[in-house]
Structures are given as structure tokens and as C-alpha cells.
Design brief:
The complex is a heterodimer of chains A (107) and B (228).
Chain A lengths: L3 H24 L8 H7 L2 H15 L12 H16 L2 H17 L1
Helix pairs in contact in A: 4-5
Chain B lengths: L1 H11 L3 H17 L4 H10 L3 H12 L4 H12 L1 H9 L8 H9 L3 H9 L7 H29 L12 H10 L6 H16 L7 H24 L1
The chains are: A mainly alpha (107), B mainly alpha (228).
Chain lengths: 107, 228
């Protein structure tokens, strides 16, 4: 059981800290000018951040110790990426990946 | 306003299957930590950051020091600083209330969905309205799945591997952002770094990967301008 005051203190500090992180640049957006180079750099953020979610979650989904089991997910992920490149349907790509994984792991 | 808001709302619908299982895990983690419904509601509403909530609830249930809980949560959330910087040119002319809403609702999925659809906007206002639509859909989906997870436990059968929907939905958000070979190069570098840095403590691997990959992108941009 988590103590009420301890919980409240942690959550309030975490909420305020997270809002400051999220709001910092947005709050200043009217007061600073972004150069063209900086805007271009921002356009790289999805390419820089999203793979850092995708690959560890796929490669290490059974933990860092398991080196062989579960690696079918990596292949299915790559296949799904290729299929998405041509079809461009998010719903279809998620269904394709999940069904393929189910077939590979359960049948 | 309504048109782009609705477009944003609908744009998130296909990736809901990646959000629901994560929300259910969060809800069941609240229940396992023996938090009351109102405590879970308060944290989920005030913080609204799944990965950080998951890590800090675990630490709080072990009575970790406040500084450790705070550092862990904020380090995981540091990536929002990048999204905030990238959003700032769009919110330039927005009212303080809209800026607050954009900041408070900033998530990986909302930000990535907006950037994946940026060719559909003619003005910053349209982009912000679209973004708020994505945020509304995200909050609704997240809250429903968290509270369902709190009440019913993690309801999805393990054999469905719904956790895999999360990386799949991110693939769908990543691919449209790879506009040239340079973007692909940054994504490849990020992929490799994320695996190499995965073991870093306090989940700092994610932020380290993001910063190093953006540093690599900066080198590519500088090289291009030097060649002109």
C-alpha cells in the first residue's frame, strides 16, 4: 500500500515537471524565432526518436538475456514496414503484423 | 477548425489497437500497486505519460526515494522536450489556452501522427487543430483502456500478442517521415543506437539515442549547406 502523502507528493512533482518539459518550447513559441536549419532539424525528430521505441520493443521483448527466442518479431516488423510502404494503411499494417505473428507463433 | 480537428481525431483511430493494450497494462499496474480508483485517476490525469507512469508506480510501490521517482519519470519524459521544440513554430500565433492544451496533451502518438500528415495543412492553425483532434482521440482511448485495465485487469489474451501492435503502429508513423535518403540514414542510426544503448540505466537509452541521432541529422544538414 502506497502512503497517501508520499503518493501525492510524487505525482504532483512529476505532473509539474512533465508539464514544464512539454510546455517549455511551446510557451516560448511567440517569443523566439526558429531558423530554417532548426526547422529542418525538427523534421528529423520522428526518424530519430521512433526507431528508438520500435527496435528495443521488438528485439528485446523477452528481455535482454533471450538472444534467439522471439526474433520472429524482427522479421515480421521489417515485412510489415515493407508492406506499409506500398499500401499506406495503418489499420492494415497492424492487422497484417499481428495476424502474421499469431500464425508464426501459434500454428 | 472542426474539419481539421475531426481529421486529426480520425487519423489516430487506426493506431488505437497499439494504445489499448498499453493502457490496459497501465490500469492493471495501478490495481496491482493497490492504488484507489481516485489515486489512479489523479495520476493518470495529472501526469498523462504512460511509460513514466508505469516506471514510477513500480518505484512508488517499492517506497523508493522521491528524488529517484522524480528523476526516473522526468528522464523518461525528456523526449517531450524535442516534440515541444518541434511544435513551437506551429503554436507561434496560438492563444495561451491552446498552447497549454498542446503542451499538456503532447504524446508520442499525437506528435508523430501530426508530422506524418503535415502535407495536409496550409496554415499553422490547421496543423494545431489537427493536432488537438489527435490529442482528443488519444486521451479518450488512453483513459478508457486504463480504467478498463484497472477494473478488469489486463483483458487481452497473451496469444494475441497485442503488445506488438505498439511497435507496428510506430512503424506506420515512421515510414511517412522518411522523405529522403538522409531521413532513412538517421532512422538506421537510431535503430542501431537504440539496441546498443538499451541497457543504460533509468531508461536513458531512449533519450541518448534520440540526442545522438539528432546530432547525426545536424551533421547531415551542415554538410548539405557546406556543399552549396
Amino acid at each position: 500500500m502506497i502512503n497517501d502523502n508520499y503518493f501525492l507528493l510524487n505525482v504532483v512533482l512529476l505532473a509539474v515537471g512533465t508539464l514544464i518539459i512539454r510546455g517549455s518550447f511551446i510557451a516560448l513559441s511567440g517569443k523566439m524565432k526558429n531558423s530554417e536549419k532548426l526547422r529542418e532539424l525538427f523534421s528529423y525528430i520522428p526518424a530519430a526518436v521512433l526507431p528508438a521505441f520500435i527496435f528495443p520493443a521488438t528485439f528485446f521483448h523477452r528481455g535482454i538475456v533471450e538472444s534467439i527466442y522471439g526474433k520472429e518479431r524482427v522479421l515480421i516488423l521489417i515485412a510489415s514496414g515493407v508492406v506499409f510502404y506500398f499500401i499506406r494503411s495503418t489499420l492494415l499494417i497492424i492487422s497484417f503484423g499481428l495476424i502474421l505473428l499469431y500464425v508464426v507463433t501459434q500454428l | 477548425m472542426v474539419k481539421h480537428f475531426n481529421m486529426g481525431f480520425k487519423a489516430v483511430l487506426p493506431i488505437i489497437s497499439g494504445i489499448v493494450p498499453f493502457g490496459a497494462v497501465m490500469g492493471s499496474a495501478f490495481a496491482e500497486a493497490k492504488l484507489s480508483f481516485w489515486q489512479a485517476f489523479f495520476m493518470n490525469t495529472a501526469v498523462y505519460a504512460g511509460a513514466a507512469q508505469l516506471a514510477t508506480v513500480d518505484l512508488m510501490s517499492q517506497n523508493a526515494a522521491v528524488l529517484v521517482v522524480l528523476a526516473t519519470g522526468l528522464i523518461i519524459n525528456l523526449r517531450f522536450l524535442l516534440y515541444s521544440a518541434a511544435m513551437s513554430p506551429l503554436t507561434h500565433d496560438s492563444s495561451p489556452l491552446i498552447k497549454f492544451l498542446c503542451a499538456f496533451t503532447l504524446t508520442d502518438q499525437s506528435y508523430a501522427t501530426m508530422t506524418a500528415n503535415q502535407n495536409k495543412f496550409n496554415t499553422n492553425t490547421e496543423a494545431v487543430n489537427f493536432y488537438l483532434g489527435t490529442a482528443a482521440c488519444m486521451i479518450l482511448t488512453w483513459d478508457v483502456s486504463v480504467y478498463a485495465g484497472y477494473i478488469f485487469g489486463n483483458f487481452a489474451p497473451v496469444s494475441w500478442s497485442l503488445d506488438f501492435a505498439v511497435p507496428l503502429s510506430f512503424v506506420a508513423l515512421l515510414v511517412p517521415s522518411l522523405k529522403s535518403k538522409k531521413y532513412i540514414a538517421v532512422a538506421v542510426v537510431s535503430s542501431l543506437l537504440s539496441l546498443l544503448l538499451y541497457g543504460l540505466p533509468l531508461k536513458t537509452g531512449l533519450m541518448a539515442t534520440a540526442l545522438l541521432s539528432i546530432g547525426f541529422a545536424w551533421i547531415l544538414i551542415r554538410r548539405k549547406s557546406d556543399q552549396r
